[in-house]
Amino acid sequence: MSVPLARRNVFFQKGKLILSVLSIGASLAMILLLMGFREGLYSALTAYVDNLDVDLIATQSGNEGVVSANSVLPGRIHNDLEELADAREAGHIAVAGVIFTVDEDKSPIVLVGYEPDSGLGDPWNLGDGRYLEQDDEILLDTWLAQRSGVAIGDTVELLSREFNVVGLTKGTASWMAPYAFVTLPAAQEALGLVDSVSYHLLRLNNRANLDTAKDAIETRFPNVRAIEPDQIADTDRRAIAAVMDRPINVLLFVAVIIGVAVMALTSYTSIMDRLREYGLLKAVGAKPLRLNVVVIQESLLNSSLGLITGVALAYSSAALIMAQWPQFNVTILPDSVWKIAVLGLIMTLLAAILPIRRLDRINVLDVFKA
């Protein structure tokens, strides 16, 4: 009896059902978008490290991040590091946060200097143009170029040097600091790194010897740390989380409260609209437990439809946001969808408490008098 009754109650008024599902879906989509914004923020700022495709990164001791630290190492130890790690490929990069200025528009960027011939440290996604060939050339993030009104073939000034824009990269945008790429010699000159680099990149012949390579490097050079890219990305993520996690978590908490309130209001109004029907069922012998099960089933059905709607709204909204504002990367992971599904179940059970309490207090005589 209870399952068909719950389904009939939910689908009886189509207009009300649509409004309820949209309300629940919007609250769940808000939570998903906030989670996606947080994940996108982290992934955008660690995108360079995530795409390096190296086994070890040698960094100055005490500077274990790329975005959140400022490492300086002598370039002359390059051959020693390569030999100690038994590396098949090695390269250098220079990384620093600088200000990119075009007319009156100023933007913080992460400047990366790499060796075009080494195949290490170069951009992982070139959208338009070509890769670097000369020291007076630069690759800009596509969104940064559009925002600054710069196109391929234009000349831009950076750190008192002029560079020709030869290509535009994709997947390198961030609302905090997009990436720009120049050759390593150009970066060293612009940043004042005389015979120095920020990081040494190493690809090993045998990754099984990773720990041995780390120990050999750190024993020979006490001021150098040999770290895996995942560890560096994790350091940057923690540095960003220390600033951003608290306000985002507050917004997530508010979104959850809104979701519970919407579900509770939906369930409560449904019960109040059918109070006479429930009273009649109670009068003819329906047990309170059976009626409570109907309420929970109605809430579960509403929340299931709302979850489907919310996921669709979240993905479509994320695509729209990234199309209109490429600097905002919204990454909705499958894991986040599962978390929302579990959260939705918990919210449904919490939302059912109020209508169940109201249902338990129904006086059959009062229903018949009405």
Topology:
Layout: H1 2-12, H2 14-45, H3 47-50, E1 56-60, E2 73-74, H4 78-85, E3 87-102, E4 105-114, E5 126-129, E6 137-141, H5 142-148, E7 155-158, E8 161-169, E9 179-183, H6 184-191, E10 196-197, E11 199-204, H7 210-220, E12 224-227, H8 229-273, H9 275-283, H10 288-324, H11 334-351, H12 353-360, H13 364-369
Characteristic terms for this protein:
370 residues; two-stranded antiparallel ribbon; 12 strands; 10-stranded mixed β-sheet; elongated; alpha+beta; 2 domains; single chain; 13 helices
Could you characterize the architecture of this molecule?
- With 370 residues, this protein is of the alpha+beta class.
- The chain has two domains: 2-45 and 238-369, no CATH class; 56-227, no CATH class.
- Helix content is 55%, strand content 19%.
- The chain has helices spanning 2-12, 14-45, 47-50, 78-85, 142-148, 184-191, 210-220, 229-273, 275-283, 288-324, 334-351, 353-360, 364-369; strands at 56-60, 73-74, 87-102, 105-114, 126-129, 137-141, 155-158, 161-169, 179-183, 196-197, 199-204, 224-227.
- The strands form two sheets. Strands 1, 3, 4, 5, 6, 7, 8, 9, 11 and 12 form a ten-stranded mixed beta sheet that branches. Strands 2-10 form a two-stranded antiparallel sheet.
- A hairpin with a 2-residue loop joins strand 3 and strand 4 (105-114).
- Helix 8 (229-273) packs across helix 10, helix 8 runs parallel beside helix 11 and helix 10 (288-324) packs antiparallel against helix 12 (353-360).
- The longest helix is centred in the last third of the chain and has 45 residues, at 229-273.
- The chain is elongated.
- The model has no long low-confidence stretch (mean pLDDT 83).
